[in-house]
Amino acid sequence: MTLEFPPGFVWGVATSAYQIEGAVDEDGRGPSIWDTLSHTPGAVRRGENGDIAVDHYHRVEEDLDLIATLGVGAYRFSLAWPRIQPDGRGAVNERGLDFYRRLVDGLLERGITPVATLYHWDLPQALENAGGWPARDTAHRFAEYASKVGDALGDRIGYWITINEPWCAAFLGYSLGQHAPGRAEPSAAVAAAHHLLLGHGEAVDALRATAPEATLMLALNFEPTGPATNSDADRDAARRADGLYNRLFMDAVLGGAYPEDVLEDLTVVSDLAHIRDGDLDVISRPVDALGVNYYTTTLVRAGDAPAEAAPTQWPGSAHVVAHEPEQATTAMGWRIDPDGLERLLRRISSAYPRTPLYVTENGAAFDDEVGPDGIVDDVDRIAYLEGHLRAVRRALDHRVDVHGYFVWTLMDNFEWASGYDMRFGLIRVNGPSRERVPKRSFGWYRDMLRANALVG
Ligand code: FCB
Fold first, then answer.
1. How far is the CA of 26 from the centre of ligand 1 (A)?
2. How far apart are CA 110 and CA 67, in angstroms?
3. I need a labelling partner for 11 at 20 to 30 A (CA). Which of 250, 262, 306, 320 fits?
4. Could you list the residue range(s) of the whole structural domain that residue 35 is in?
């Protein structure tokens, strides 16, 4: 049976600056927190880093041609703040902006809509030295950066994503210590989450002033959670995890208030003194759409160590992920749950029916094997994508207002703390030559989006 998508549905593919660009010392770029963390022994698998990454900075023309061959209508990428403001403040570095002018013009020439993310985790190190996201001033610096970028590129970019995945930036970065800047300070993480959202709201104001016609959104990573058993303790653990992953961010941005139960949970690690009167009005400035990043769902059970007992492991200590040996997972160990995407889209849409949605990331890492012909026959990735697209189609059937879908990711790249081991790309990037070889999934996605339908 053929499952058609609505006319005009946006098909895209996504990347981020630090994961692909390399050229970390070129054309006046300053250091970011990911340069620092990736050069810290033990922080990244095999001690890998993004110094060269997949060399996109130097191969941008080749990559633009590949994106055009893929046939997507939109390309989601991020701008590296430290290329544009090497110290995170003050005058712009025109050479840094020039790279993005070339990229954006190259997309437009090929008829591809640019979707620009302003922050995909590469905070200028100078701002981290001044306190990082736990410091309120970082939100104001982000708004200044947004305003300058809007001035420079607002004439040619019609779609903006302010912040990518504030949960990860705040909690993986400042509490669990797995991502940059690698701090393990739960109360700082709670303040970071708030200031990331405040920065988002201030950036919306800045972009509205410089690019009034643009579509503005932010991208949240949702991880639907359920209890491993029906016990009260597990159900409460699931409520807490859902609150922290999902509701804290969505309700603040779209509903203008933090959920009361989550605020109460947070008092275990934070006095919440960083939240000031009027902040939620800024955080909830109207957006034109919401970006939904979805990979997996989790089942949780109550942790052995409540946050009071182990604050430095929080929030991981407050609940633990339940293991389900029979469940299929990706190479990341993430359970494959396409139905979770349908449920999530329907949930967001019933809570906030007026907000159009884009799936701004979805995809999977597998242990790709290169066949004798040099091609990766990644049937598991195709099955993953197809399953999730069927889920999007079912959500559309339930009148969820989904406007587009972006595969994570165009090509294998630096997968943060996992280094280059985790391959999410539609294109394989080979070893030191960094030769690009489209995988079977590349052709599958190209044919699917050309038909605007899943066939078969
Ligand atoms: C998301 C990130 C993206 C990539 C995928 C696998 O959380 O936004 O950069 O790492 O996960």
1. 25
2. 9
3. 250
4. 2-455
Give the nearest ligand 1 atom to 332 CA.
6
DSSP secondary structure letter of residue 374: S
Per-residue pLDDT averaged across 200-228, rounded?
96
- pLDDT bin (cut points 50, 70, 90) of residue 318 is low
pLDDT in tens, 438-447: 999 999 999 9
ipTM confidence score: 0.98
Contact at 8 Å (CB) between 14 and 358? no
DSSP secondary structure of 236-272: HHHHHHHIIIIIHHHIIIIISS--HHHHHHHTTT---
Q: Is 361 a catalytic residue?
A: yes
φ, ψ at 370 (rounded to 5°): -85, 125
* Pocket residue to mutate for ligand 1, from 361, 362, 424, most atoms within 8 A of Cβ: 361
* Radius of gyration, alpha carbons of the chain: 21
> Is ligand 1 within 6 A of the CB of residue 416?
yes
Choose among 428, 440, 442, 431: nearest CA to 48: 431
The pLDDT score that the predictor gives to residue 312 is: 56
pLDDT above 90 covers what percent of the chain? Answer: 91
Q: In this predicted model, which residue has the larger pLDDT, 310 or 301?
A: 301
Residue 227 CA to ligand 1 centre (angstroms): 25
Number of domains in the chain: 1
Tell me the two tokens of residue 31.
């250091």
**Two structure tokens written together for 294:** 């979805």
Distance 16 CA to ligand 1 centre (A): 9
Does 265 contact ligand 1 (Cβ within 6 A)?
no
Known active-site residue 21:
no
Mutate which of 120, 122, 410, 416 to test ligand 1's pocket (most atoms within 8 Å of Cβ)?
A: 416
Residue 303's pLDDT band, with cuts at 50, 70 and 90, is confident
Supply the pTM of this predicted model. 0.97
178 labelled ligand-binding: no
Catalytically annotated residue among 165, 202, 223, 386: 165
pLDDT of 325 higher than 80: no
